[in-house]
Task: structure prediction
Amino acid sequence: MDNVLHMIGMTNRAGRLKIGEEPVGEACQQRASRLVMVAGDAAENTGRRVVHFAEAGQCLWIRIPYTKEELGSVTGRSICAMVSVTEIGMALAIV
Result:
């Protein structure tokens, strides 16, 4: 498994990962998000929502080179298009 995916999985197990559109949007709105990631194969509309969320929460966002299925596999879902890291140390380690 790739190191970035491994770090995302560890962040999830630590309870510092918000998974999916609504939790990510809420974390950004509350300015709890430190990093928002969107899957490489996510739809263009999803990418625009991520940009909007990141701007509202004043946090960094990146498009990662993994599919929704790969991201879903480390988050315990079948597919996942976006996640948000809420702990600065983990966000820095991933970036």
In short: Helices lie at 3-13, 21-29, 44-57, 68-75, 88-94. Residues 4 and 95 are 8 Å apart (CA to CA). The longest strand covers residues 35-39. The chain has a mean pLDDT of 95.
